[in-house]
Amino acid sequence: MATQLTKTEFLNKYGTTKVKFAAYSKFKFSFKAETPESSILVWVGGNSSDAYDLEIDADTFESINCINPTNGVVYMNGEEVEWFN
Question: Which end of the chain is more exposed for a tag (fewer CB within 10 A), N or C?
């Protein structure tokens, strides 16, 4: 069973992880980091004002702290282990 974290706990634990733009859908941007053992997905936005305020460079890695995500999830070996919303 996955552990729910607060946003602060998630950022303290994973905030320095570098993620890269992965997708955009319905005013929500997703970013991803992958290692052989884990994947971290974070999302930013959800409404039109959030989408217009965010500058994206699809070829650049940014730390999770820099993009200030609205939610995120961590998978280890394909299993969801931690998340925040």
Answer: N
